[in-house]
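Researcher: I'm preparing a figure for a lab meeting and need a structural model of a single chain. I don't have an experimental structure, so a prediction will have to do for now. The sequence is pasted below. Please return the structure as tokens so I can convert it later.
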Amino acid sequence: MNDTESKNSYGHVLKYTGIFGGVQGLNILIGLVRNKLVALILGPAGMGLASLFNSLANFVSQATGLGISFGAVRHLSEIFDRGDNERILSFVKTVRAWSFMAALLGVAACVAAAPLLNMMAFDGDDRSLEIMALAPAVAMTALAGGETAILKGARRLRQLAEIQVLMVVVSLALSVPAYWFMGFSGIIPVIVLLAAANLIVTLRFSLKAYPLQTAGAAAALKDGSGMIRLGMAFVMSGVFGSGAEMAVRSFLNTCADLDTVGLYNAGYMITVTYAGMVFSAMESDYFPRLSAVNHDTAAVNLTVNRQIEVSLLVIAPMLVFVITALPLLIPLLFSGKFAPVVPMAQVAILSMYARATMLPVAYITLAKGHSRAYLVIEGISAAALVALMAACFSRWGLVGAGVAVLLSNVLDLAVILVYARLRYGFRMSRQVLTYAAAHVPIGIAAYAATFAHEAWLGITLGLLATAASTVLTARTLYKKTEIWNKIKTKLKNKKNGM
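Model: Understood. Here is the structure written out token by token.
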């Protein structure tokens, strides 16, 4: 690959990481307002209860969704790259038919399994009827998942970004008034209303791109066997993932209380959800691109390494800054009642270095359709998280929860790297190793600075680390992309146009 092609490759990854990261950034800014208001209204216990119900809804959705929201993307991406419009329309009908079946299955499972789920999640309280009331949300999530997969497979990236922005605004508009007037009683209605809003917004874009066709829908079910095979592995992995999160929250609720669950959820939101803005382009842009070249080992290696490099470069300065600023950010984002979660979040944030490296490699297994291997790896990951959480929380409390998140991500990285090396011949590039060797020690130094006896000294050292990480990233992107030249050109054109 020559220098120009390399810069173009970097530019593409950076562009869509920037687009979806920027959208997530906007979402987070609006979400900050929502989370602040909800935290003030419900407090840690209310947020803990909301977290438990959301975990239950996600668990049932993952268990009954047939993996359509993910499995369909790979198949549609390959058809889309061949330019076979007739086949695309046919497969869209297949996706919708299976999504409807998943919705029906979700409703039945949510109602039937409510007593068991109640026993797993709540210690002594009978909330079976409230769990049953989540059934409509589970059904609408399945339908929206199929429509989202259609947009991803057809590379409708702008529409996907618009959906994310609209949904965070709707979330703010619906949830805050509901919690204000209904308190804890508003948790279930909010979950259902948001699922309905997500389905309506998604349909607005997907039906415009591919109008609904019901003729031959029953026959279309036969055409989705490959999608469902891959999807079922994704279902089980999702069950492992959401089941592990539900198990962690249930464990914290049983061993501690709802306040602890709320604190953990706040810390998890800071570390995984907010840092995830950098990873948000992976499913929308990266996975379809990787699926399109999955038979070419050299192309796979190049695509994966480019994604790791950009992810590390973009996320590293943000992680260092968040570690430093968390004592100020937590009261600002939530309330002073959430201050005890700061030490947990600071150590857990270090896990995002491992996650930024691990996720692009993990997608190789899915892109190649090796569902059984993906399932085993996800099972190991889920079991490790639950085991580490039980051990570390019992020993160190909330800080131990952060340690468990860090150790589980490091273990995930080690497992997936070994597997990808042995089965797919994947090698991390020299650039990835160089960037990791430069940025990870800076993050560790920022974390070490949080133990300074004087607060001003810790903040100063943390800000210096943030500056160092930012400079390293800026210099690398300057060399690897044409972004600065494009910015200069735009500024020059604006100046000449004045």
